[in-house]
User: What shape does this take?
Amino acid sequence: MGKLSCDMEEMLRLLIVAVASVSAILITIFSLTRGISAVFPLLYILPIICVVYFYPRHAVLFTLAISVIYIVLVYVLGAFDPILVAISTAWFAIFIALAVVASSYANGILEEKARIRHIMDNTRDGIFCFNPDTLRIRMVNLKCAEWLLYSRDDLEGGPVSTVWTDARAQKRFMDEVKVRKTGVMSEAIFRQKNGGMLRCILSPLFQTKDMVLCSVANVTDANIADEEIRQTLEDLERQVRERTAHLEKINEELRAEIIERRRLEHNLLSGDLNDECGHKEEK
Assistant: This one.
């Protein structure tokens, strides 16, 4: 579905460029054959702007091609009128300059977007961007999509509730972001594609009127590790208690045994003394 949509968008772009270009050429031919020379050069700006916007890397070559077509039509159909030739030559230079400047600026923006995209895709944290008004996902990076077990195409453009089902948590987070802008850290439970739960820490990085860009830290494994550590500590504490109780029991048994032995020794000593006293009296 996503690939079909991209193909349709590409066809629509090509159609717009083709219609604008053909219209400019046909109107030029019509104007020149009717002796009109004041309007048609402006019509070439539209296809040039469209190509700069849709295909900035090819804008200069396209502009050169359509400008050559324009100036050839003027030379052939303009009866070599010196004023018309001078004006068309000036427009030719204007078209080329416009394409070079605009495409350079557009290519710079594309390179910056590609650099930012590369950084976002290779960061260890997830990136989650959504529209605070419509609550629709604008963008996620590969790391975040992998954690959620989705592809980016499945998530981008969809509702936030696809993965963040707690509406109250969303409202609390947005209220805090509106007040503090940055520095907010909020725990969120995201739902994975297979129904599993992902425990995350959301932190806003950048905010505009129609966009909130957040970093997503996956703390699910950390919580599991904490639980394992807690369980281990409880097991150790239980073992210590059992061992202590066992030692106390042994001490009690030893103490009782010592007391019993001393009692027996005392009885034996008392018996021996009584025997000695009896012998002395007999003597």
